[in-house]
Amino acid sequence: MNQLVTGIFLTMHYKPSAAEAFSSIEYIMRDVDGGWLIRYLHSTGASAFFIVVYLHMFRALLYGSHRKPRELLWIFGCLIFLLLMAEAFMGYVLPWGNMSFWGAQVIVSLFGSLPVIGGGLVEWIRGDYVIADATLNRFFALHVAALPLALVFLVIAHLMALHEVGSNNPDGIDIKKHKDASGHYLDGIPFHPYYTVKDLVGVAGFLLIFCAVIFFAPTFGGLFLEGPNFEPANPLQTPPHIAPVWYFTPFYAMLRAVPSFAGTQVWGVLVMGAAIVVLFFVPWLDRSPVLSIRYRGPLYKIALAIFSVVLHHPWRLRIETAGRHLSTAGQDLHGAVFRFLLADALVHEDRPREAGAGEGHGTCVSS
Length: 367
Hints:
The protein has 13 helices and 2 strands. The protein has helices at 2-13, 21-30, 35-63, 71-93, 98-110, 118-126, 133-165, 194-216, 249-257, 266-277, 282-285, 298-318, 324-346, and strands at residues 188-189, 364-365. It is globular, with a radius of gyration of 23 Å.
């Protein structure tokens, strides 16, 4: 809701033109009443959104929410994640700062490494032979209209799939199996007031941190908004270190970790794409007899912990440097992904939950 409302107000003053985009952002920041707050709510909100999305996906891996019978729910979630990355990237280009311009140049040029169709595809995405006014216009249209509309439909499909199979819980119990004479679930508790109060506390804490960042550190040391993006786009001046915003850094690290050979960089692009595609197959790669991490063996827990730590490693490097260190982080990330998926697919040391364990304790949500 924050992104929608602030985006509408930003659109009232933003000009999607290569000649006026940057100056319109400066106008919003300096001359529009409360414009600086609207802009920072939107830019910080994007980072906060991805923090919530990554935590949501991590929680699903913790408690097996991607497993049967919730495979379709997980796939819809992965599609939402994919569209969110496209939405965030196109929004990142719109301020038309120097980092936005060169970030678009690097990312769009990646498609040129694809054989046969690469050159034509890059021109089609740009709408021109270079990153220019046509590129900015089509990115603006996709960011404010096409992609949000697609996201709305996917979120509706995600919620419909959730309603069909029900929510998961930390114990991995199917609460719909046992009902009393009145039809209430024996293994569940009402959503209100128990979970509404708990969620309100979490939302209040998150908003407190969110507001603190907006008012005291809106750029977050260059992690949310980079210094070069406060300079107008300059095709003749490359920023010292071209690196994407923090939530794209793991994928960019994978790209940098794979060297070009046979005269093409397509291998890095394929690895980066495969890291996203493999998420869709996680429900079938995970063959454990139990859902929740509470009942899994130590190897899965260690693999998931290593994966999480290494995933954050290139984000830290994002504000330090790029190049050799980022490539090293990407290689570490590859190893972590491989170890996690290998443990997920091959290890069967998990202990199945005993029949009836957790039943009647009232720890799950009733639908």
